[in-house]
């Protein structure tokens, strides 16, 4: 007792502190378009009455929510949750899940997978950061290697993940016009240039933002090209089969030692568990494990523990097929009906919905860009994502990119209907303005 208390004066504000960031710091802290957009979307979430059709959160499917609640209760009572929370896993990730998943994939899909072919990450987003920078960027001999997206538009989340600038190259698609005001993108193999600097081909299947699922034929062709050029093919299977299974067209899952398959527990309904799963050859898995060790010691264990329990109960594939897939399929069809109630095929074409949680709308003759449309909609508290953000790696600006818009079809139908009504009004206003 009797000690003297000293107070260290705290500066009133820290905004004027002079601090120099590294090149890495500058690159990863700059205000990119996507940061601005994400802030908008986040703000939208907190604005009363806003209609949020922009984000990528999966649906809360009541049956899945109840299931997760029950599994967590059981895991708490059995001590499994405690066991997971109170221990580190190894840098490759929870080995009990890795062993069980390898066996599941061998038995159910016939893939030649061993535990040394699987590594876990904190969400698949961080897996892309690892893999892109592992395989692309400046090499020992000073040359630059790049990632090829064979089918733009592609996932916005890839855009800023390269340590080096100019890491990505994208190939424009061909567009097939379909009945009922729908269309579908295809890989334009005639213009697909796998130049010397390409060291990885990457495609999301189903694709965020479009809901496209590249066909088995296209996938096999890409696989063949990758093998021919001695480079891996990365398939981002965040929405795909066998889990979470948000696919409405025929699609055969594919893996071989030249394929890096990235999966995730997020769209199963567990985005907060931050669990990504990489299935690849041993060299890639060792590299990812080392990176995990350096960057995060070990990936988190709660998501993997839940997935393990789901496999033990034989529920992982079953719920994907019987609960998750039908929920999204029904929802997407309802939302297409809503769109068609408000907008004709002349005004709005819809990418064939083959999977994922988005609809991709093409306003072919729109006199304004979808960026301007986005700003006008924002003023009316409706948030959607303008198309041009989804073309990472595309060298030249493409008018088509400014005619498209992505909406998330998960919110309540009344909200979607109101959002679509306002969207169609704004489109009519833009057309009227152009006539005068
Ligand atoms: C195509 C695609 N890949 C990967 C991810 C990343 O998901 P996560 O990091 O939650 O596994 C997302 C998220 O929306 C996505 O849409």
From TrEMBL:
The keyword Membrane does not apply. Gene3D superfamilies: Type I PLP-dependent aspartate aminotransferase-like (Major domain). The keyword Transferase applies. Residues 82-421 form the Aminotransferase class I/classII large domain. GO terms for biological process: alpha-amino acid metabolic process. Keywords: Aminotransferase, Pyridoxal phosphate, Transferase. This is Valine--pyruvate aminotransferase. The lineage of its organism: Bacteria, Pseudomonadati, Pseudomonadota, Gammaproteobacteria, Enterobacterales.
